[in-house]
Write a structure and sequence with these properties.
The protein has 156 residues and is of the alpha+beta class. It has one domain: START domain (Alpha-D-Glucose-1,6-Bisphosphate, Chain A, domain 4, 2-Layer Sandwich). The protein is built from 3 helices and 9 strands. The strands form 2 sheets. It has a 7-stranded antiparallel beta sheet with strand order 1-7-6-5-4-3-2. A two-stranded antiparallel sheet has the order 8-9. A hairpin with a 2-residue loop joins strand 3 and strand 4. The longest helix is centred in the C-terminal third of the chain and has 32 residues.
Amino acid sequence: MAYTCAEFAAPVETVFAVLTDPTTYPSWLIGAADIRSIDRSWPAPGSRFHHRVGVGPFTLADSTEVLEIEPDRMLRLAVRARPLIAAVATFRLIGEPGRSVVTLEEEPSHRIIGNLVRPVLDPLTHLRNQRSLRHLVELVEHGRAGTAGMIEPAAG
C-alpha cells in the first residue's frame, strides 16, 4: 500500500470540499488530464466522474467511483486507468479549527496482481501521491495548483 499525508492551514470542511469536487482534480492530481462528465448524484456512493488520465496525446478515458463517503472525514474511491491501473484510494481527514491533515492510502484493487507489482509500483505511487498532495495544499491554501496555473483562491 502506498501511504502519504499532508498538513493544511485550512479547516477540514474546506479540504473535503475540494476533494469532493472532481473539477479540481486536473489542478492537483498528477496524471489527471481532464474531467469529461460527472454523475448527477455525485458524490453519493456508486456515483462516478469520467475523466482522462495521462500526458499529452497519451491519455486514457476512464472513470472514478465513490465507494464510501463520510462527510468531512473520509472519501474512498475506486480509481481506474484501464487497462493499466485499478486501485482503491482512501482519503482520511482530521483537524482542528483552521488546520487539518489528510492521509492518502492507495492499493491495487486486485490483490494477486497488486502483490506481484507492488515492489515496483508502491514507491512510484507514493511519490506521485506525495506530489499530488503538495499540489492540493497549494490549491487549498493559496488558490494555486501545481499543474494548472492559477484558479480562484479558497475562502477562509
